[in-house]
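Researcher: Quick test of sequence recovery. Tokens follow.
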């Protein structure tokens, strides 16, 4: 049975039942045979509207759209009328008047996309590419696709998410999706002051110490410190942080033997993750990137179809 398809993808929590599973299945099918989808959305138009820096997310939305036969327009806020004082909503309405089919938005404010979705006419789909510390639904989906592909026992897994959980939108969306997909044990570990909020922490195991958190886990996802969102908060220098909270090869030895190492990027090598771990045999960081394209193709296809 086909699931209910929402008009927009704003976050994991509001997606209708079955929709995210449908996207994951579709992404896996697309990955098997990408050429079959090369004209699936021919003639349609996607606009990338980014108010924050991005490498992976912006480019993979662009490549995803091109692989579906769409045309793409990229707008960086630094080159647009935002510089002249235009509001996000006015910019969005202006773009919407030019009749794109999908607008992908990244914005530094939590919840910034809800008013855009409310203002969108039928047929225009808004996709969240990251809003503040709140949500990053396509990152959660590409991570889940990577886990489903790599871990035969999925969802019977112990997954640890560690780092700056408080300011990371990857935490909130990722944990929400892991819970929804029924992952057996979710562990969180953060330095003092960087813990996740109460909603994220519900039903998960919290650890204060990274060595204990790593004991026997099947997957560890490391997150960088979100310097752009610290608002003056003091944090230890890189070396001290790495010594206490960084994923080193020695620490990884505490996890299950084939424990997968994930990171959404951008990585700060020598801070939250050691280079030999990031580039080591257990790392699936570049697979996450590759899955990002298929996941975003599937999101676009599912919304437009
Ligand atoms: N690229 C991810 C994001 O946009 C993770 C990060 O920046 O740390 O949230």
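Model:
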């Amino acid at each position: 049975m086909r699931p209910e398809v929402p008009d927009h993808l704003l976050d994991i929590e509001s997606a209708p039942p079955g929709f995210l599973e449908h996207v994951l299945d579709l992404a896996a099918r697309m990955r098997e045979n990408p050429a079959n989808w090369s004209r699936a959305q021919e003639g349609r138009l996607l606009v990338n509207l980014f108010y924050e820096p991005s490498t992976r997310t912006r480019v993979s939305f662009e490549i995803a759209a091109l692989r579906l036969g769409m045309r793409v327009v990229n707008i960086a806020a630094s080159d647009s009328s935002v510089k002249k004082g235009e509001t996000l909503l006015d910019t969005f309405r202006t773009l919407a008047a030019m009749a794109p089919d999908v607008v992908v938005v990244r914005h530094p404010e939590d919840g910034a996309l809800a008013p855009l979705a409310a203002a969108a006419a039928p047929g225009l789909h808004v996709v969240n590419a990251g809003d503040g510390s709140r949500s990053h639904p396509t990152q959660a989906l590409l991570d889940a696709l990577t886990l489903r592909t790599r871990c035969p026992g999925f969802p019977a897994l112990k997954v640890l998410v560690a780092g700056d959980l408080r300011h990371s939108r990857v935490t909130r969306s990722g944990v929400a999706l892991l819970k929804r997909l029924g992952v057996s044990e979710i562990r969180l570990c953060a330095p003092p002051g960087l813990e996740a909020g109460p909603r994220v922490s519900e039903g998960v195991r919290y650890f204060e110490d990274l060595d204990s958190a790593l004991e026997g886990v099947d997957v560890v996802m490391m997150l960088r410190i979100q310097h752009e969102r610290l608002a003056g908060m003091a944090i230890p220098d890189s070396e001290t942080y790495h010594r206490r909270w960084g994923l080193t090869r020695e620490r990884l030895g505490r996890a299950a033997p084939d424990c997968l190492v994930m990171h959404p990027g951008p990585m700060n090598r020598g801070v939250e993750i050691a280079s030999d771990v990031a580039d080591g045999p257990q790392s699936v960081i570049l697979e996450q990137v590759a899955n990002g394209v298929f996941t975003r193709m599937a999101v676009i296809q599912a919304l437009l179809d």
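The two ends are 15 Å apart (CA to CA).
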